[in-house]
Amino acid sequence: MSEMGNGYVTYMGHQWLTIEGEVITVGIMEEALEELDAIIKVDVPAENESVEKDEICGELETKDGSLNIYAPVEGTVLEINTAVTENPELIHEDPYSEGWILKIEAANPDDIKELTSGANYDN
Q: In this structure, is residue 101 part of a structural domain?
């Protein structure tokens, strides 16, 4: 299992984010995964679909319920990690590297500044 290193932003208490320019990668923190049984399905929007800041944009379905995935910014889904949609357990196995879920291109640079100005940004 890989470690969450520097440069990660904690979001909504259970998601991690990395920010490269205007692209934000979204994943689930290992601590949140410890509370979940096996992930059965990853439900995320399609590439090029719009997402709204702080709104639910997907979910992880598990044997004992679901965990919502929130969009940290308003923007467009740039890329979906098809490896986790085909093999959801990859999120448990390697949450900070191979187990990322989706990438969003921010529509508003101020949204990124807001994410990185908080005390939760560790760079």
A: yes
Which strands, in side-by-side order, build the sheet including 121-122? 50-51, 75-80, 102-106, 23-28, 15-20, 8-11, 121-122
CA distance 68 to 13: 11
Name beta bridge partners: 79: 103
Strand pairing category for 65-70 and 50-51: unpaired
Per-residue pLDDT, averaged over 19-48, amounts to: 93
Asked whether residue 1 is assigned to any structural domain, the reply reads no
In a domain, 109, yes or no: yes
Single-letter amino acid, residue 116:
T
Q: What DSSP state is assigned to residue 89?
A: H
Is pLDDT above 50 for 122? Answer: no
Candidates 78, 88, 95; CA nearest to 14 is: 95
Q: Which domain holds residue 50?
A: 8-117
- Find the CATH number of the domain harbouring 100: 2.40.50.100
